[in-house]
Amino acid sequence: MDAILRNFSGGSVETRERDRGGKPSREQVEAAVRTLIAWTGDDPKREGLIDTPARVARAFEELYGGYFECPIEALSRTFEEVGGYDDIVLLRDIPFVSHCEHHMLPFTGTAHVAYYPEGRVVGLSKLARVVEIYARRLQTQENLTAQIATTIDEVLQPRGVALLLEAEHSCMSLRGVQKHGVSTVTTQFTGVFQNDPAEQERFLRLIRNR
Ligand SMILES: Nc1nc2c(ncn2[C@@H]2O[C@H](COP(=O)(O)OP(=O)(O)OP(=O)(O)O)[C@@H](O)[C@H]2O)c(=O)[nH]1
Ligand SMILES: [Zn+2]
Questions:
Q1: Which pairs count as long-range contacts for 94-97, CB under 8 Å and 24+ apart, including other chains?
Q2: ipTM score assigned to the predicted complex
Q3: Is the Cβ–Cβ distance between 49 and 42 less than 8 Å?
Q4: Active site residue 102
Q5: What is the per-residue pLDDT for 20?
Q6: How far apart are CA 152 and CA 43, in angstroms?
Q7: 70 catalytic, yes or no?
Q8: What is the pTM for the complete model shown?
Q9: 102 CA distance to ligand 2 centroid (A)?
Q10: What's the helix, strand, coil split of the chain in %, to 5?
């Protein structure tokens, strides 16, 4: 239980993805949702709410499905027939929804993912799948950014990886400080994007210039 709720941030991607724990039963989850409903002040036994715990459990399976998918596997099929192409590959504006690990409230935004292939490339959708898998876990935006970058870097071993995420956190807009329209930007660079300021600048320019 502890293991599954932990969002593994230490060790290699492979270790992180291997160390999975058990899972509570459906009955336990539904009982927990009934407790939360009662905590709000409502009656979990009233007609409109009677099936809600089951719905919430199903919604959680969808929203947090990323714990049961493997980002390493998503990147496992690569191909080399790209006519000698060896320049930057950039996926711009990948939309994502994740949930902050502090409040379990959604933060939504877009991810820009780039890498410099080293001989072999991966199917484009697989990069978006890695974003999706990690987004569907409890996250901080920093951790989400780092996990996507590290995974692509470790699995594909390209010449470099560049990530930029921009998102609005509903725990900041709907509650607490209640600031709407704040965009949080995080970046992570490896390889040439980290070592060569010109490459980093090129990535940022490609994102900005539409
Ligand atoms: N660094 C980081 N902080 C986050 C992220 N998501 C939410 N937070 C912040 O986590 C912090 C949690 O702070 P706490 O003081 O424990 O919680 P809180 O009392 O609800 O804080 P307020 O939101 O200021 O009311 C808040 O400042 C949130 O804005 C994230 O992805 N990254
Ligand atoms: Zn939060």
A1: 94/127, 94/128, 94/131, 96/131, 96/132, 96/135, 96/165, 96/167, 97/63, 97/135
A2: 0.90
A3: yes
A4: yes
A5: 53
A6: 47
A7: no
A8: 0.90
A9: 5
A10: 45, 25, 30
